[in-house]
Amino acid sequence: MKRESIALIFACFALALMAQDGIRVHFKGAQPTICDFVSAFVSSHDDAEEDDCADEAFNGVAYAWERYQKGIPLEEGQTLTVDEKNGYVVYETRSEYESTENVVRMEMCYWNETDGKHKLFAYSVWCFTNGKPSLGQFDGITFYRYDNATKKMSYCDPPGFDVKYFDTSYALPRTGKDIIVTTWDENGNKEEKALKWNGKKFTF
Question: What pLDDT is attached to residue 167?
Answer without folding.
Answer: 83
